[in-house]
Design goal:
Length: 234
């Protein structure tokens, strides 16, 4: 497969106001599965980008093949959506650096990732709590930012082989909680078409600050469940 370098874009763009116009809803198991696969690819690109920005990316991470997204079905969607996804996620990380760093320490009292299975369970737990009440595009981006933080933890602790488990956990969350909603909101392109150009100055910071605060609450809940034995990472 020929390699395609994805343009990650420049600095954060202005976040437009919400639009009530939605693209036609698509449905069917094949479309849902494509949404899941595109989501895993987007998350993989996000983790890869986060590792690079954190200075810990190397060939042992095993994510080079993600650059061949253009040759996969729906790869053009990934190329179109990822720059905006990365821009919003980067702003989330900038505003809440402690929240999206050393995620494993926040979600578990253990300082180290005990196993590959524990990594997947940890991310799945965050996803369940994050989308327990409702789903928004902001929360979807926030989950990817959490995955990026966990990815950095994995590599820094000498476990780059755990990265694929993160993508599988994202895939499970998409299948169980997100894919139908994403389909109903225009597919992954809905992240771009969900908003119209602003009529006044609305910065991306005013939006992601609310998302970051909610995510902080989610991580605290996960920590408390782990601490009191209601949730166990094996």
């Amino acid at each position: 497969m020929s390699q395609q370098v994805i343009n990650f874009g420049g600095g954060p763009a202005k976040l437009p106001e919400e639009s009530s116009d939605r693209p036609p809803t698509l449905s069917g198991p094949l479309w849902l599965q494509e949404i899941v696969e595109q989501g895993k690819l987007l998350c993989g690109q996000y983790v890869r980008n986060r590792l690079k920005r954190s200075g810990v990316f190397n060939r042992k991470c095993g994510l080079q093949r993600l650059r061949t997204a253009a040759s996969l079905p729906g790869g053009h969607v990934v190329r179109e959506v990822f720059p905006e996804l990365a821009s919003i996620g980067k702003e989330l990380e900038r505003m809440h650096p402690k929240l999206y760093s050393t995620v494993s320490r926040q979600a578990s009292p253990s300082p180290n990732l005990s196993s590959e299975k524990a990594v997947g369970l940890m991310l799945a737990a965050v996803g369940r709590e994050l989308f327990k009440c409702d789903v928004t595009w902001g929360k979807v981006v926030s989950l990817f930012a959490v995955a990026g933080g966990l990815g950095v933890d994995c590599v820094r602790q000498g476990h780059p082989e755990y990265l694929q488990t993160l993508l599988e956990a994202i895939g499970e969350t998409l299948e169980e909680d997100l894919a139908p909603w994403i389909v109903g909101n225009g597919g992954w392109s809905g992240l771009l078409t969900h908003f119209k150009p602003p009529t006044n100055e609305v910065s991306i910071s005013s939006f992601v600050s609310l998302v970051g605060a909610f995510t902080a609450t989610v991580l605290v809940l996960v920590f408390l469940m782990r601490w009191f034995g209601k949730f166990a990472f094996i």
